[in-house]
Amino acid sequence: MGRQETIARSVVQAITNSDHIRRRSSNPLSSILALFSVFFSLYQLVLLKIRPADFANLRRKHWDLEDNAYIDSFRPGENGDGEQEGLNSIGDMGFSGSTFYSTADQKYLVKSVPRHNEHSFFRNDLLTPYVQYMATHPRSLLVRICDFLGASGASIGRILRVAPSHHIVMENIMYGRGGAKKRGEVEWEHWDLKPTSYFYPERDIADGALTSDATKNQLADEFHDKIILTQKQADDFFASLESDTQLLAEHNAVDYSLFLVRMEAEGKSSRQITDTGMEPGSSSAGTGENSMVPTDPPAAPPSPPSWRTGVPSPDGKHVFRAAILDFFWAKHKLQPRFMTLLITLWNLCIHPHGHMSITTTPDEYRERFLNMCRGIVEIKKE
């Protein structure tokens, strides 16, 4: 079994509580052999849920997500589509070294959080405020995190860092894309948006000549268009952004992004999606892959339309989804402080480029982020 498959299986075992290593054995020799197997494993880490009661409370009481339905998404071969694994690898993405997996039903993504400064920030600083905030802000654009997993005990793989020690399980804002492909619909577009006016060494040193195009392609996307919204839709959007980013700024988070999805809303789908959600009696107002707008947890509640189910543009051309992602980089952690020092010295001694998105202040990043979001919205007068 390869690295990706082994890591995926560790995650599935943690979610479904099926890890035989954690089961007590009456045979001392079997227990000793199991401990040796865990210690010398490169990729098969024993993962445990961190603060499981808090995330279970969010799932059950605020996102109407039943435990059995949640766990079923991770069970191999039980999703009706011939998949034999509980998670499917979708590759390494970004500079953080994170790996991504999708459940076979595409409802959830698993993202590894390998950097100590990121997973320690979420666990020690942001987790409690996040849980409290998400319980009281149902229309928040912060991505819904359903579980947080961390490695337990020592192992060769953990010491050598060849396998990520922490993972988050989150909603998949692209849920339904697979069904749209099967129906022959236009491919969904998506962008990972951050303010691009910051100093990006990969792009700005020697005009990007020192790095490959593949590396530069991993930088933040640019959206060269507009999100067409009514005044009410725009007001709701900006209110959520203001509130969400205020929480992040208060806890020193920077470098988060707006993940934007745009779907064509023509023909059958455009007639069914209105400013109040799905029309009553719509044949596709069901669940998940059978509809452009999911109406099942954790996407709903609240009822559609929302930015996680799909907000229709008033011109009838598109449906948009959006979520705030990657809010794990905090200015007060050791690695960010070291990076801030390096960029400060660079600006003083070599060339004044200004701060990077990971070394600026939380308030300044929030201001630029909100300005970026306002700049991509166009309000259609009614």
The percent range for helix content is 25-40%
The total beta strand count reads: 16
Strand content: 15-25%
The H-level CATH homologous superfamily of the largest domain, spelled out, is 2-Layer Sandwich
Integer-rounded radius of gyration: 22 Å
What general outline do the C-alpha atoms trace? globular
In CATH terms, what is the architecture of the largest domain? 2-Layer Sandwich
Number of helices: 13
Order of helices and strands: HHEHHEEEHEHEHEHHEHEEHEEEEEHHE
- Sheet of most strands: 6 strands, antiparallel
Low-pLDDT segments, ≥5 res: 18-25, 78-83, 267-272, 274-290
> Can you list the strand order of the major beta sheet?
1-5-6-4-3-2
CATH class of the largest domain: Alpha Beta
Structurally, the number of domains stands at: 2
CATH topology of the largest domain: Phosphatidylinositol Phosphate Kinase Iibeta, Chain: A, domain 2
Determine the oligomeric state from the structure: single chain
